[in-house]
Here is the input.
Amino acid sequence: MDALKSHLIFIGAPGSGKGTQAKLLERKFGYQHISTGDLLRFEIKRGSPLGARVKATLAEGNLVDDHTVLELLTQNTNVLESSYIFDGFPRNKFQAELLEEELLMGANHLALYFNLDSESLIERIVNRRTCLSCGAIYNLLTGPPAKEAVCDFCGGNIVQRKDDNEETVRNRIKVYDEACEDLLAFYEEKRLLRSLDAEKDQREVFAEISKLIS
Ligand code: AMP
Here is the structure.
């Protein structure tokens, strides 16, 4: 990438397609996809003290404290070197302020809102499967892998995330909705918010985002 593109901030409930679009944009435009959920799951998997501290919170679908997530994000990004897609952060207005003040520090950015109703979200999430190796995302109903449980891109193992069950999902969506309005107002006020109809097919959503960022 020659000049840095504006960083993208993805806002949307679990299952709204943020991760899928981030992977597509990463492949086509060279963005770095950074998902705070992935960073936290990695900490749990490698058994770090931070991972041990947040394990139960993730299992319940509640939010990890703001400063822990920001710290993890700061350690894993350099906004002067790459253009990022922030997926799953910020989750509330306070995190949005932290992102601006402590991480972006004046770097250009744009917030994209993935708008989708709750019942569609639940159906998507319980059918979602993720590649353990490269993070590619599949939907068993609308886009399954060619070979069962094997990733089309890297041959890795495809699994269901532990928190992608209906009970946890309902709580995650509720937790998300509670803070979403404030978050949208925050970016709307700065005229940095663009809304997407995330009900559409992933190719259409991708085309819409490509237009917005070019
Ligand atoms: P996600 O993969 O974005 O659905 O996130 C999975 C889980 O990680 C959430 O249910 C939270 O427990 C935690 N998490 C991810 N991002 C954040 C964040 N920005 N703030 C607090 N908790 C988070």
